[in-house]
Design a protein that fits this description.
The complex is a heterodimer of chains A (200) and B (186).
Chain A lengths: L2 H15 L8 H13 L5 H7 L8 H17 L3 H4 L31 E8 L6 E5 L12 E2 L4 E8 L2 E9 L3 E3 L17 E5 L3
Antiparallel strand pairs in A: 1-4, 2-5, 3-4, 5-6, 5-7
Chain B lengths: L12 H7 L3 H23 L2 H18 L9 H19 L18 H20 L2 H12 L4 H8 L3 H25 L1
The chains are: A alpha+beta (200), B mainly alpha (186).
């Protein structure tokens, strides 16, 4: 192989290694850790599904397992319809939104604060802060951080229990969380959103 | 024994400590591996938002599956295997959408003429990369950008060594052929 082509690939490699946009955003990294800590343990089903993606089955092993699965499917064909179980996942209580409010585990007892994430998707907002019964509805006390995607986020430690909150957009507009249930009461002169924080 | 292969800079005790429940160790793993993960994902999926989503999802999965990480295994191929799967899933999800490469502004280097040339080159590299078959792009990135050994790429992709070498070679052939015109113009 001549030197020219190697130099060309080397240049491609340099270009891709130094590509703009590949420098991590420190806020995003911090948020990632927050998401990881707060992410719920996957369900047994999820773990089973992950088992097909994560581990390293050998090619032969994967073929054998796939063969067994196909054979089992052949034997039980039609059985699923006959044993129809309506909404099998409805009782899990898991949050399934794109940016779910999730609950972290508290290890210091039932009253220990639990880090809780709040997210608002509003690319046009200049400033967003979180107001609620946990910060006396103080405007600006809990500002959210804007991610590159236009999503605003903040994680705050909250004591277990029911909390009412809202987002204050650009210091003037109070909006409820579209991903959370409404409070039905009016702590701040109008309806808020509700987050239930559970100790684990 | 410390692994000194290029691109491998993880303290081998970190995954084990993270597996034992040491959050600080996991945070260090994220710190070390996030930049490379983001770079790989960005080149694979072509836009930052999806790349960050893939990387975040990967680390969540890694965290919850650490218990299944073998003590004698190497962390990097394990992580990249999950990441590559996430990238492929996202690409499949976006397959019907128009391909838009959103790397952001290409930085200017030097004076205007040189910057223009550099920009042409960089954009052409992205453009060609985006046209490569996924399996070739993946193999090329892991080998030539992430400096992985073929044995590790095999662990990531589940593909045999000879097939991987062929994928990398084909990707290089396409890049050489199409970029040679850009070089002639410089």
């Amino acid at each position: 192989m001549s030197e020219g082509p190697d130099l060309l690939i080397e240049r491609v490699r340099s270009t891709l290694r130094e590509a703009p946009g590949t420098v991590p955003d420190p806020r995003r990294v911090a948020q990632l850790l927050s998401v990881v800590w707060e992410s719920p343990e996957p369900s047994a089903l999820r773990r089973w599904l992950d088992a097909w993606r994560v581990p390293s089955l050998s090619g032969v092993g994967a073929t054998v397992v796939a063969g067994i699965a196909l054979f089992a499917g052949f034997l039980t064909r039609g059985a699923v319809d006959e044993r129809r179980a309506p909404e099998p996942f409805a009782a899990t209580g898991s949050q399934t939104g794109e940016f779910p409010v999730q609950f972290a585990s508290a290890t210091l007892g039932e009253t220990a604060p639990v880090l809780t994430q709040f997210v608002l998707d509003d690319a046009k907002a200049q400033r967003v802060s979180l107001v609620g019964d946990f910060n006396d509805w103080a405007a600006g006390a809990t500002p959210l951080t804007r991610l590159e995607s236009g999503v605003w986020t903040v994680s705050v430690p909250l004591p277990p229990g029911r909390h009412v909150y809202a987002f204050l957009v650009d210091d003037t507009l109070l909006v409820t969380d579209p991903r959370a249930p409404k409070s039905g009461d009016a702590d701040y002169g109008r309806e808020g959103s509700v987050v239930m924080v559970f100790a684990r | 024994m410390t692994d000194t292969r290029p691109g491998t800079s993880i303290d081998p005790t970190l995954p084990l400590r993270a597996k034992a429940g040491d959050r600080q160790a996991f945070a260090q793993l994220v710190d070390v591996m996030y930049p490379r993960s983001l770079r790989f994902a960005l080149h694979m999926v072509g836009n930052r938002e999806d790349a960050e989503e893939a990387v975040q999802d990967t680390f969540v999965r890694v965290y919850h599956n650490l218990g299944r990480f073998r003590d004698d295994a190497r962390f990097e191929p394990w992580l990249f295997r999950i990441l590559a799967n996430r990238c492929r899933s996202l690409m499949e999800k976006r397959r019907r959408h128009a391909v838009v490469i959103q790397y952001g502004e290409v930085p200017e280097r030097g004076g205007p003429p040189a910057a223009e040339t550099e920009r042409d080159w960089t954009e052409e590299v992205y453009r060609i990369l985006a046209t490569l078959p996924v399996e070739q792009k993946e193999a090329f990135l892991l080998r030539h950008v992430e400096d992985m050994a073929y044995e590790d790429i095999a662990a990531v992709t589940g593909v045999g060594l000879s097939a991987l070498r062929m994928r990398v070679k084909r990707a290089c052939d396409v890049l050489r052929a199409r970029l040679s015109e850009v070089i002639r113009d410089e």
